[in-house]
Specification:
The chain is an alpha/beta fold. The protein is built from 16 helices and 23 strands. The chain folds into 2 domains: 352 residues, Metal-dependent hydrolases (TIM Barrel, Alpha-Beta Barrel); 111 residues, no CATH class.
Length: 563
């Protein structure tokens, strides 16, 4: 008897092949039969012509902390994700000596827009090495499958403490870091991740530690992957990090190098296409280099008390980590306003806000008398009063003691220009940042968005193509075996959805973090079921209660070469 049979489905197998009508049989967590099946099963699902696809493989998440207190990795499984890769950008929470725990939490709270109170209340610190961390989350269990990067900033902090955000490392310190990275890879990490992004700042506005690493340090640490003969290198790049550096690392290690992020950016329209062209050129020379592209606008909610989108602007540098009182004082200063205006007129590469006030809206006001402003852009509101948008923006925020919630579409807003980036073979559709920026955004539903908006509505992809870009492609590029396809012998990670309604809801706020903290969340549309290793985890309306969590820690990920 089979464990599960899904009958009468339209199967999108992840290869890009046309949809095929049929049944699917599962036993022992793996797909064992396809076609017209008569064998009985312990669980039978009548798909009634819905599409059955592999579960989505989300290669850019930040569930490292959340996994220690909440094993669902909510909201990702409800949104069709069956495999998550954590530790991106170098922001793992291990290895971490006891004396550095609060420093890691403080930096994570700032760079990933998380509640420090929630992190302090929620993280289970019963680990020190990266292997200890993997062992602990494996014991706790997990709903989706999980693979994790060893994080550069975390390794640097473990070795150098607060000095990690202040200076270059010594030769002895780099040697110690190499040992920690090698131990993490040996324990089953998918690879090593880093960041040079100028948007990545820690607690009090200090640079995240990996930004202080000199190139020889980065090359030595990434070189561990070549010595181990396994692992993926991931890096979130700043404007001074060329694709050529990723190509060098890929070539010298013989491993895959993937970087974040390739954006459609009105201020620098040539950058994204050029980055992917450089990836294609590197691939033609035998180096496996890919760029991550999001299929959604990078939309963030923020207040002027902590405006993450401004952190890359020179004028805001003195205010990173400043008190509300200090920020309010600066916003009233005409000199500061002049400097801020100058930063917008001469944006640097890496800037994610450059003064498009029509794409910045009032999301939520703090004062009832301002309620009419909600849902309207700063440009519209300023024009109605005959005022300069920047002055209106600062004055409006000041009038509400910097508690106004603004929402901005920062990049990827021009879909005509974004589409060629998404379709580029050198692109990995990713960048959900799920588990991070909880108070600012929730892009965990990128998969249903690609299947609904880009496939059904815009017709930019055929359905088989879209499924492949979300499943087999990332699994192959990251060397994740037996995932991302529907075929005999593959793990039964499955997504059942209605192609006519699949999508993602509007964002909403939910109070379920440790200590009562809130986060932004989205819900699936048109999703009828999700299975992880053959176990039903989401029924289209809610999570299915589990006696034993079905997800697996993918210690073998990153071993296979990229496609």
């Amino acid at each position: 008897m089979l464990d599960l049979v899904v009958r009468d489905a339209l199967i999108a197998d992840g290869s890009g092949a046309p949809l095929a009508a049929g049944d699917l049989g599962v036993s022992g967590g793996r797909i064992v039969a396809m076609g017209k099946l008569a064998e009985p099963a312990r669980e039978t699902v009548d798909a009634q012509g819905l599409v059955l696809a592999p579960g989505i493989v989300d290669v850019h998440t930040h569930y490292d902390a959340q996994l220690t207190w909440e094993q669902r990795c909510s909201p990702s499984p409800a949104l069709g994700v069956t495999t998550v890769v954590i530790g991106n950008c170098g922001f793992s929470i291990a290895p971490c000596p006891p004396g550095q725990r609060d420093l890691v939490a403080r930096n994570l709270s700032e760079v990933e827009g998380m509640s420090l109170d929630a992190l302090r209340a929620g993280i289970d610190w019963r680990f020190e090495s990266y292997g200890d961390y993997l062992d602990m989350i494996e014991r706790k269990g997990m709903v989706p499958n999980v693979a994790g990067f060893v994080g550069h900033s975390t390794v640097r902090t473990a070795v150098m403490g607060e000095a990690a955000s202040e200076r270059a490392a010594t030769a002895d310190e780099v040697a110690t870091m190499r040992r920690l990275v090698a131990a993490g890879i040996a324990a089953g990490a998918i690879g090593f991740a880093s960041s040079s992004s100028e948007n990545h700042n820690g607690y009090g506005g200090v640079p995240m530690p990996s930004r202080l690493a000199e190139e020889p340090e980065l090359l030595q640490l990434a070189g561990v992957l070549g010595e181990a003969g396994r692992g993926v290198f991931q890096m979130t790049v700043g404007p001074r990090t060329p694709v050529a550096l990723l190509e060098r690392i890929a070539r010298e290690t013989g491993r895959t190098a993937v970087f974040s992020s390739v954006f459609q950016n009105d201020a620098f329209p040539e950058r994204g296409p050029a980055q992917l062209a450089d990836c294609a050129a590197a691939q033609s020379r035998g180096a496996r280099v890919f760029g991550q592209v999001s299929c959604q606008p990078l939309t963030m909610e923020f207040t002027l008390a902590n405006p993450y989108p401004f952190h890359s602007l020179d004028a805001w540098a003195p205010l990173k980590g400043a008190s509300v009182e200090r920020i309010a004082e600066a916003l009233r200063d005409p000199g500061f306003r002049a400097r801020f205006r100058a930063s917008l007129t001469t944006p640097k590469r890496g800037t994610i806000f450059y003064g498009n006030w029509a794409r910045l809206q009032v999301a939520e006001v703090a004062s009832k008398e301002h309620r009419a402003a909600e849902g309207r852009s700063v440009a519209e509101l300023a024009a109605a009063e005959g005022r300069d948008p920047l002055d209106f923006f600062f004055d409006f925020g000041l009038s509400e003691n910097l508690r106004t919630v603004f929402v901005g579409q920062l990049v990827n807003a021009d879909e005509e220009k974004l589409e060629p980036l998404l379709r580029n073979p050198a692109a990995v559709v990713a960048l959900s940042d799920a588990g991070a920026h909880l108070s600012l955004m929730c892009d965990a539903g990128f998969g249903p968005h690609l299947l609904g908006h880009w496939t059904r509505e815009r017709k930019s992809f055929t359905l088989p193509e879209a499924v492949r870009r979300l499943t087999a492609d990332p699994a192959g590029i990251y060397g994740i075996p037996d995932r991302g396809r529907i075929a005999p012998g593959y793990a039964a990670d499955l997504l059942l959805f209605d192609p006519e309604t699949v999508g993602v809801s509007r964002i909403r706020r939910q109070a379920d973090l440790p200590g009562g903290g809130t986060r932004m969340i989205r819900d699936p549309l048109g999703v009828h079921g999700v299975w992880v290793n053959g176990v039903h985890v989401f029924d289209g309306k809610d999570y299915v209660p589990q006696k034993t969590l079905p997800g697996k820690l993918l210690r073998d990920a990153g071993v296979a070469p990229a496609v």
